[in-house]
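Re-run requested by the PI after the first attempt was lost when the workstation crashed. Everything re-entered from the original request form. Ligand of interest: S-adenosylmethionine.
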Amino acid sequence: MEPVTTLEDRVVVRNYLGAGDERALADDVLDGLTRPFKELPPKHFYDAAGADLFDRICEQPEYYPTRTERAILVERSAEIAALTGASELVELGSGTAVKTRILLQAMADAGTLERYVPIDVTEGMVRDVAEQLVEEHPGLAVHGIVGDFERHLQHVPEPDGPRIVAFLGGTLGNFTPGSRRRFLRQLAKLLRPQDFLLLGTDLVKDPAIIEAAYDDAAGVTAAFNRNVLKVVNAELDADFDPEAFEHVAFYDHEREWLEMRLRASRKMSVHIGALGLDIDFAPREELRTEISAKFTPERLRDDLAAAGLELAELLTDTDRMFALSLSRPR
Ligand SMILES: C[S@@+](CC[C@H](N)C(=O)[O-])C[C@H]1O[C@@H](n2cnc3c(N)ncnc32)[C@H](O)[C@@H]1O
């Protein structure tokens, strides 16, 4: 008799975020808010409300990266599927996997699709995406990883066939240049000679276009930015008043990156109960919440080369706003 495969058999979700992970937020808060120049890493934006706000950012007319990356995927996914022959897609920061579906469909159309491995810190999203995708693709197995892609890549399962590791949405730009190269080296370890890295990177362009994208007229990005303070309040028993912070987004010409900050509107002291810590803000003092580096093709090639990777294809839109690159181990 043929073995019967149920939907449950085709979905595995493993959670590597344990008790230690509130500690990860606690460590980042302790470290980042006691520095002379205050800073928090952007991964803490994404509780359920933050993830919804990010989806709404993607719908704003000023936010060009998502729709441009999607358009490139619509146009070139069949080519990516054919060039790579991949049966497996590993995706970092998969979120709601809206764009990923385009590539998965192209792999299915090419007859190669077997497994999808989404990795995200938000458990609900990994589970929902896993369940939806096995319904959409008969025969697809999903191995979801709820974890931090900076700390849990060792839990990515052994490859089942030729693999694409995808890191979309320009999220690589959130790393500072040194840690970006270090992270690319970690990613390169997931690749065998027949595998490819598919990387989405935002490109250097008119700063006015970039600044508008991170400061939409509807104020969605401002709400997303302040959400990190709500996350700290909820998880570390803090008493930030998010509305007392102004959203700031500006392009740093020298470093070629966009910065988001939260500026204290007045002098204040914030108590962080879980850490027994009081943090003082001077009037107009700023807290950096994100950098988003913009790339030139040359910078991208150099960063990839420093990680032992070679650019195979650079796919861009006609206005050269955004790039998807395919690279492989040298
Ligand atoms: C900017 S969104 C991009 C989502 C989607 N890939 C896209 O291109 O639209 C970043 C996603 O990465 C996730 N994320 C951010 N930092 C992470 C980390 N260190 N480990 C795992 N997931 C992370 C967030 O939860 C969020 O879903």
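Saved to the shared folder this time. The chain has a mean pLDDT of 95.
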